[in-house]
């Protein structure tokens, strides 16, 4: 009864250790199924899907989009000197334009007055950083004297 209700899967029956104890009938069935599977897979080709993917062609009427492209082959740190020479020749106009743009951006980023103010604050902070203990205490005393001369604001009680 247990054998009738519970059948083993085809994949399990195909395993080598399971084939030792199989009947002649089940062996024949498995062989026939394998032949049918092999024959079906053997003659089936998936070409229509491949052709649909391969026919992706874009037609461009002018070569305008290709004018500003960089040179395709690349070499770095002297690995292929011939290619590096070609890179320099082919990419030279683009690099000059990029350098000009970068220089113009650098000129407009920070004005001279801003740079002078930043430099003053940098000098003061670096002076504090490398000052010795005695020099630090002198700087702090000067700052305290400057703050003491300013009038301290105090809370005034309201008059009735």
From TrEMBL:
Compositional bias ranges of the Basic and acidic residues kind: 136-160
Pfam families: MPP6 (PF10175)
GO biological process, one term: maturation of 5.8S rRNA
Region ranges (Disordered): 92-111, 134-160
Annotated InterPro entries: MPP6
Name assigned to this protein: M-phase phosphoprotein 6
Organism this protein belongs to: Coregonus suidteri
């Amino acid at each position: 009864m247990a054998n009738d209700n519970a059948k083993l899967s085809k994949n399990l029956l195909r395993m080598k250790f399971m084939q030792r104890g199989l009947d002649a009938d089940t062996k024949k069935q498995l062989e026939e199924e394998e032949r049918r599977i092999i024959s079906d897979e053997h003659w089936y080709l998936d070409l229509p899907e491949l052709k649909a993917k391969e026919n992706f062609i874009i037609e461009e009427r002018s070569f305008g989009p290709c004018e500003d492209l960089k040179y395709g082959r690349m070499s770095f740190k002297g690995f292929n000197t011939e290619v590096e020479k070609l890179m320099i020749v082919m990419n030279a106009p683009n690099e000059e334009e990029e350098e000009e743009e970068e220089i113009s951006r650098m000129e407009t980023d920070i004005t001279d007055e801003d740079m002078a103010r930043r430099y003053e604050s940098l000098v003061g902070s670096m002076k504090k950083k490398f000052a010795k203990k005695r020099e630090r205490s002198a700087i702090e005393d000067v700052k305290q004297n400057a703050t003491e001369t300013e009038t301290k604001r105090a809370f005034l009680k309201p008059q009735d």
